[in-house]
Amino acid sequence: MRRTKRFAVLSAVAFAAALGLCGCGAGEPESAPPAVTETQPPATSAPTVAAEPATPVAPLPAPDAITDVLARIADANIPGAEKLDLIENATPADAESMDKFAAALRDGGYAPATFEAKDLQWSDGGNGVVQATVTIKSAGAQRGEFTFPMEFRFAEDHWQLTRATTDALLFLGPDATPRPTP
């Protein structure tokens, strides 16, 4: 099951990278552009000014601020309804998913999990999003660890896991039902 989890995480990252690269050459001709025989007069449009970079909404968080968010989300002793403020754009319907995620971690032998966040940086897209490389380690040596890129946003005076990262974690979370080993 550990290989399946790692494969799922690596597949998700590779898939996202492939999707990003697929659009790079879309719509471009395969051959060289035709030669221009006429000389065009110089353009007289006004020069463009580069946009100012987005100002971060808060200082870059300490790694502990990020790992505390994840530890609370993974804690099966905290009801899902009390975790909603840890997730960007969470709704009351997400509470049950949070409960199931924490229970699956616990029942799958991943709890208590520890988290290490490193390489924190502001996202290229701005919008107050911080990217971090997070390593998740299970309590049991047989489960090992895996690393996953995650994004966080500062909102309502605290850090939250972005919706996109939350959805990826819930999709890739451990199965509650054991599967036979081939």
Q: How would you characterize this protein structure?
A:
It is a single chain. By secondary structure, the chain is of the alpha+beta class. It has a domain at 2-11 and 56-172: Roll (Nuclear Transport Factor 2, Chain: A). Helices cover 31% and strands 18% of the residues. It has 4 helices and 4 strands. The chain has helices spanning 2-22, 63-74, 94-107, 163-172; strands at 114-122, 129-137, 145-155, 158-161. It has a 4-stranded antiparallel sheet with strand order 1-2-3-4, with helices on both faces. The longest helix has 21 residues, at 2-22. It is globular.
Write the topology of this structure.
Blueprint: H1 2-22, H2 63-74, H3 94-107, E1 114-122, E2 129-137, E3 145-155, E4 158-161, H4 163-172
